[in-house]
Amino acid sequence: MFFRRHKRAGIEEYDHERLCPAIRSSICTGEKVAGFRNKETKVFTEIMLVSSDKDLEAFKDRYGITGDIEVFY
User: Is the pLDDT higher at 48 or at 13?
Assistant: First the structure.
């Protein structure tokens, strides 16, 4: 009510040279978040919550990702 939440701009295309698709998974809760990880700095940018296989497929389709995605904890 008192604070405004700013919408973060999503990445529509990603730089294949600098970023790689990844999924961050919580050890405690099992929550999974899909996004991109910088190859040099290892900084992870969250894009969307993955609560089912359908969400993961939507993420892959949106960014044209084929094959397996790296999972880290």
Answer: 48
